[in-house]
Amino acid sequence: MRIAVSGTTCIGKSTFIDDFISNWQMYKLCEKPRYTDLVKEKNLQLNENGNEDSQRIILNSLIDQVMSSSKTDNVIFDRSVLDNLVYTMWLNANEKVSDSFVKESIKLVRESLVFYDILFFLPITRQSPVKFIEAEHRTTSHVYRLEIDNIFKALVHQYNKNDSTYFPFELKAGSPAIIEIFGTRKLRIELAKQYIGLDGQIVAEEPNLFMPSDPHISDFK
Prior knowledge:
The protein is α/β, with parallel strands linked by helices. Helix 1 (13-23) packs across helix 7 and helix 4 crosses helix 6 (142-160). The longest helix has 19 residues, at 142-160. 41% of the residues lie in helices and 9% in strands. The chain has helices spanning 13-23, 35-42, 52-67, 81-93, 99-113, 142-160, 185-193; strands spanning 2-6, 28-29, 75-78, 118-121, 177-180. Strands 2-3-1-4-5 form a 5-stranded parallel sheet, sandwiched between helices.
Protein backbone atom coordinates (compact mmCIF):
# COMPACT_ATOMS: atom_id res chain seq x y z
CA MET A 1 0.00 0.00 0.00
CA ARG A 2 1.25 3.43 -0.92
CA ILE A 3 -0.39 6.19 1.09
CA ALA A 4 0.26 9.92 0.80
CA VAL A 5 -0.75 12.66 3.24
CA SER A 6 -1.77 15.92 1.59
CA GLY A 7 -2.92 19.34 2.69
CA THR A 8 -1.96 22.96 3.10
CA THR A 9 1.13 24.00 5.05
CA CYS A 10 1.21 23.61 8.84
CA ILE A 11 -1.94 21.47 8.91
CA GLY A 12 -0.33 18.64 10.90
CA LYS A 13 0.76 16.24 8.15
CA SER A 14 4.02 15.24 9.85
CA THR A 15 2.26 14.74 13.18
CA PHE A 16 -0.39 12.56 11.54
CA ILE A 17 2.30 10.50 9.81
CA ASP A 18 4.10 9.94 13.12
CA ASP A 19 0.85 8.83 14.75
CA PHE A 20 -0.02 6.64 11.76
CA ILE A 21 3.30 4.79 11.87
CA SER A 22 2.91 4.32 15.64
CA ASN A 23 -0.40 2.55 14.99
CA TRP A 24 0.59 0.70 11.81
CA GLN A 25 4.21 -0.23 12.41
CA MET A 26 4.43 -2.18 9.17
CA TYR A 27 4.55 1.21 7.42
CA LYS A 28 7.63 3.33 6.90
CA LEU A 29 8.02 6.94 5.87
CA CYS A 30 9.45 7.31 2.39
CA GLU A 31 12.28 9.74 2.98
CA LYS A 32 14.33 9.82 -0.24
CA PRO A 33 14.43 11.67 -2.46
CA ARG A 34 12.85 14.45 -0.36
CA TYR A 35 11.91 17.81 -1.81
CA THR A 36 13.10 19.53 1.39
CA ASP A 37 16.62 18.30 0.67
CA LEU A 38 16.37 19.71 -2.84
CA VAL A 39 15.18 23.03 -1.45
CA LYS A 40 18.40 23.37 0.54
CA GLU A 41 20.66 21.87 -2.11
CA LYS A 42 19.37 23.97 -5.01
CA ASN A 43 18.19 26.98 -2.98
CA LEU A 44 14.69 26.65 -4.42
CA GLN A 45 11.98 29.25 -3.96
CA LEU A 46 8.82 27.95 -2.28
CA ASN A 47 5.27 28.89 -1.45
CA GLU A 48 4.37 32.43 -2.57
CA ASN A 49 7.84 32.83 -4.10
CA GLY A 50 7.76 29.64 -6.15
CA ASN A 51 8.39 29.58 -9.89
CA GLU A 52 8.33 27.15 -12.80
CA ASP A 53 11.86 25.89 -12.18
CA SER A 54 11.25 25.14 -8.50
CA GLN A 55 7.87 23.55 -9.12
CA ARG A 56 9.23 21.34 -11.91
CA ILE A 57 12.15 20.14 -9.77
CA ILE A 58 9.88 19.40 -6.82
CA LEU A 59 7.32 17.57 -8.99
CA ASN A 60 10.00 15.40 -10.56
CA SER A 61 11.30 14.59 -7.08
CA LEU A 62 7.84 13.55 -5.89
CA ILE A 63 7.35 11.39 -8.99
CA ASP A 64 10.72 9.71 -8.47
CA GLN A 65 9.79 9.14 -4.84
CA VAL A 66 6.54 7.29 -5.48
CA MET A 67 7.89 5.38 -8.48
CA SER A 68 10.82 4.10 -6.42
CA SER A 69 8.36 2.18 -4.24
CA SER A 70 6.57 -1.05 -5.06
CA LYS A 71 2.83 -1.70 -4.79
CA THR A 72 3.69 -4.43 -2.29
CA ASP A 73 5.51 -1.96 -0.03
CA ASN A 74 3.78 -0.41 2.98
CA VAL A 75 4.95 3.15 2.65
CA ILE A 76 3.56 6.56 3.57
CA PHE A 77 4.56 9.80 1.84
CA ASP A 78 4.67 13.33 3.22
CA ARG A 79 2.85 15.11 0.35
CA SER A 80 1.99 13.80 -3.09
CA VAL A 81 2.13 15.03 -6.67
CA LEU A 82 -1.33 16.50 -6.12
CA ASP A 83 0.17 18.90 -3.56
CA ASN A 84 2.59 20.15 -6.18
CA LEU A 85 -0.27 20.80 -8.60
CA VAL A 86 -2.20 22.76 -5.97
CA TYR A 87 0.75 25.08 -5.32
CA THR A 88 1.36 25.43 -9.05
CA MET A 89 -2.27 26.44 -9.58
CA TRP A 90 -1.97 29.08 -6.86
CA LEU A 91 1.15 30.47 -8.55
CA ASN A 92 -0.70 30.54 -11.87
CA ALA A 93 -3.65 32.38 -10.34
CA ASN A 94 -1.14 34.96 -9.11
CA GLU A 95 0.56 35.19 -12.52
CA LYS A 96 3.84 33.61 -11.41
CA VAL A 97 3.72 30.56 -13.70
CA SER A 98 2.21 30.19 -17.17
CA ASP A 99 -0.96 28.41 -18.28
CA SER A 100 1.15 26.10 -20.42
CA PHE A 101 3.18 25.09 -17.39
CA VAL A 102 0.00 24.25 -15.46
CA LYS A 103 -1.21 22.06 -18.34
CA GLU A 104 2.16 20.30 -18.43
CA SER A 105 1.94 19.73 -14.66
CA ILE A 106 -1.62 18.38 -14.87
CA LYS A 107 -0.53 15.78 -17.43
CA LEU A 108 2.37 14.59 -15.28
CA VAL A 109 0.27 14.56 -12.11
CA ARG A 110 -2.53 12.53 -13.72
CA GLU A 111 -0.03 9.97 -14.98
CA SER A 112 1.67 9.74 -11.57
CA LEU A 113 -1.40 9.54 -9.35
CA VAL A 114 -1.93 5.91 -10.42
CA PHE A 115 1.04 4.92 -8.27
CA TYR A 116 -0.76 5.88 -5.02
CA ASP A 117 -3.45 3.75 -3.37
CA ILE A 118 -4.82 6.35 -0.93
CA LEU A 119 -4.44 10.09 -0.45
CA PHE A 120 -5.37 11.20 3.06
CA PHE A 121 -6.37 14.86 2.76
CA LEU A 122 -6.12 17.04 5.89
CA PRO A 123 -8.37 20.08 5.40
CA ILE A 124 -8.80 23.23 7.44
CA THR A 125 -12.15 22.99 9.22
CA ARG A 126 -14.03 25.35 11.51
CA GLN A 127 -14.68 22.54 13.95
CA SER A 128 -11.05 21.42 14.11
CA PRO A 129 -8.69 24.32 13.41
CA VAL A 130 -4.99 23.49 13.58
CA LYS A 131 -2.75 25.88 15.47
CA PHE A 132 -0.26 27.57 13.18
CA ILE A 133 3.37 26.79 14.06
CA GLU A 134 6.15 28.66 12.32
CA ALA A 135 8.88 26.51 10.78
CA GLU A 136 11.62 26.68 8.19
CA HIS A 137 10.44 26.81 4.53
CA ARG A 138 6.85 27.51 5.62
CA THR A 139 4.80 30.58 4.92
CA THR A 140 3.65 32.87 7.72
CA SER A 141 0.55 34.02 5.79
CA HIS A 142 -2.74 32.69 7.14
CA VAL A 143 -4.54 33.92 4.00
CA TYR A 144 -2.15 31.94 1.81
CA ARG A 145 -2.79 28.77 3.81
CA LEU A 146 -6.54 29.24 3.36
CA GLU A 147 -6.17 29.82 -0.38
CA ILE A 148 -4.11 26.64 -0.76
CA ASP A 149 -6.69 24.72 1.28
CA ASN A 150 -9.47 26.03 -0.97
CA ILE A 151 -7.68 24.84 -4.09
CA PHE A 152 -7.29 21.39 -2.54
CA LYS A 153 -11.01 21.31 -1.77
CA ALA A 154 -11.86 22.45 -5.29
CA LEU A 155 -9.76 19.69 -6.84
CA VAL A 156 -11.31 17.07 -4.59
CA HIS A 157 -14.72 18.38 -5.62
CA GLN A 158 -13.68 17.60 -9.20
CA TYR A 159 -12.57 14.16 -8.00
CA ASN A 160 -16.01 13.53 -6.50
CA LYS A 161 -17.51 14.41 -9.90
CA ASN A 162 -15.25 11.79 -11.56
CA ASP A 163 -13.65 14.56 -13.58
CA SER A 164 -10.76 13.12 -15.59
CA THR A 165 -9.23 16.53 -16.15
CA TYR A 166 -7.10 16.11 -13.04
CA PHE A 167 -7.54 12.44 -12.07
CA PRO A 168 -6.77 9.26 -14.06
CA PHE A 169 -10.20 7.63 -13.86
CA GLU A 170 -10.02 6.34 -17.43
CA LEU A 171 -6.65 4.62 -16.99
CA LYS A 172 -6.51 0.93 -16.11
CA ALA A 173 -4.75 1.53 -12.78
CA GLY A 174 -7.30 4.21 -11.90
CA SER A 175 -7.20 7.04 -9.40
CA PRO A 176 -6.27 6.62 -5.73
CA ALA A 177 -9.02 7.01 -3.15
CA ILE A 178 -9.12 10.44 -1.54
CA ILE A 179 -10.20 10.42 2.11
CA GLU A 180 -10.66 13.37 4.43
CA ILE A 181 -8.93 13.15 7.81
CA PHE A 182 -9.71 15.89 10.34
CA GLY A 183 -10.04 16.66 14.04
CA THR A 184 -7.74 16.03 16.97
CA ARG A 185 -4.73 13.73 16.71
CA LYS A 186 -6.77 10.91 18.25
CA LEU A 187 -9.77 11.49 15.99
CA ARG A 188 -7.60 11.54 12.87
CA ILE A 189 -6.25 8.07 13.72
CA GLU A 190 -9.73 6.79 14.55
CA LEU A 191 -10.93 8.01 11.15
CA ALA A 192 -7.99 6.30 9.44
CA LYS A 193 -8.93 3.04 11.19
CA GLN A 194 -12.23 3.07 9.32
CA TYR A 195 -10.27 2.56 6.10
CA ILE A 196 -7.04 0.83 7.12
CA GLY A 197 -7.24 -2.51 8.93
CA LEU A 198 -4.88 -3.94 11.54
CA ASP A 199 -2.98 -5.61 8.71
CA GLY A 200 -2.36 -2.23 7.09
CA GLN A 201 -4.62 -2.92 4.11
CA ILE A 202 -7.79 -1.21 2.88
CA VAL A 203 -10.87 -2.46 4.75
CA ALA A 204 -13.42 -1.14 2.23
CA GLU A 205 -13.21 -1.01 -1.54
CA GLU A 206 -15.08 2.27 -1.81
CA PRO A 207 -14.45 4.56 1.19
CA ASN A 208 -17.04 7.24 1.87
CA LEU A 209 -15.62 10.39 0.35
CA PHE A 210 -16.37 13.80 1.78
CA MET A 211 -18.13 16.57 -0.06
CA PRO A 212 -15.99 19.69 0.17
CA SER A 213 -17.01 23.28 -0.17
CA ASP A 214 -17.39 24.60 -3.71
CA PRO A 215 -14.68 27.18 -4.41
CA HIS A 216 -13.84 27.94 -8.02
CA ILE A 217 -10.76 26.82 -9.89
CA SER A 218 -9.50 27.76 -13.32
CA ASP A 219 -10.44 25.46 -16.18
CA PHE A 220 -7.40 23.98 -17.89
CA LYS A 221 -9.22 21.50 -20.12
